[in-house]
Amino acid sequence: MTKTLVITGFVALVALAGCNTVAGVGQDLQEGGNAIQNSAETIKRKSY
Predict the structure, then answer these.
(1) Average model confidence (pLDDT) for the chain?
(2) Any idea what DSSP says for residue 48?
């Protein structure tokens, strides 16, 4: 029984860590996209 609880806890921990990692990657990609968009808008304004 103890072994099953340890394995279940470990699996839950890994699953939760994976969710946080995916969410973090999504936020990083979004911030990178915003930076590219802001740079493009700045260049567009300077070219007129």
Answers:
(1) 85
(2) -
